Each structure stands twice: as C-alpha cells, then as structure tokens.
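User: Hey, my collaborator sent me this sequence without any context and asked if I could get a structure. I don't really work with proteins. Can you help?
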Amino acid sequence: MDTSYPREDYLPAPAHKRQPSAAAPGSPMPRDHLIWSIFNTIYMNFCCLGFVALAFSVKARDRKVAGDVEAARQLSSKARCYNALATAGSVVLPLLLAALVVTGVIHLSKLAQESAGFFAYQFSGTDEEDK
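Assistant: No problem. I've predicted the 3D structure and written it out in structure-token form, which is a compact way to encode the shape of the chain:
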C-alpha cells in the first residue's frame, strides 16, 4: 500500500499522453462551478458542504487547465453535487424551521382560545339561581 503524498484520486497524466481536446470534437469543456462553490462557502456553508464543493471545484479547474478533461468532468460532477446539497440544505432547513414555528404558533393560539373558554365564568342575569 502506497501511503506517500499527495493522495489524489486522479493523478495527472504524463505530458506525452495529455491531450487538451480529449473530449469529442465540438463538445464543451466541463464547467468547474467555482463561483457557485465560493457563494456556498461564504454565505451558505451548511455542514461545510460549501467548502468541500470549493475543493472539488478547484481540483476540476486544475485538471481542466492540465488538459485532463475526463478527470475534470468527474470532479466537476462531484462539485455540482456538493453545491446542490449545500444549497438545498441551506434553503430547505430554514423554510422547514419557519413552517414548524408557524404551525406551533397556530396550535398554541387555538389551545389558548380553548383554555380561555374553559376557565371563563359565565354569569347569568337572574338572581333566582343564587338563592
């Protein structure tokens, strides 16, 4: 088992095997989602998923610059997945929390109205019942 550093999933291809246009002719280069990753890291870093997405985005950009299109595509896919998870977690969880607060307030207001009616005394206008 080789434990030497750097431990990378995708080691760079030798210079003589690299081809900048390894993808099919006319197919676009993979996107690295760097801006989305920076946004998730700074503003919505839910469980550090934004930082993980940023790391994969930087790796994807490095692989794209080095000419390893297939590795860049795989790293870009991981970055997109982590960005989607970070965005969904940062948007869905506050909405869920707000929904729970609203339903709790509604439930407590109904409970308060019912208990107010239970504890209220109703006085009758006749004096015959008091005798």
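In plain terms: DSSP finds three helices and no strands in the chain. You can pass these tokens on to your collaborator as they are.
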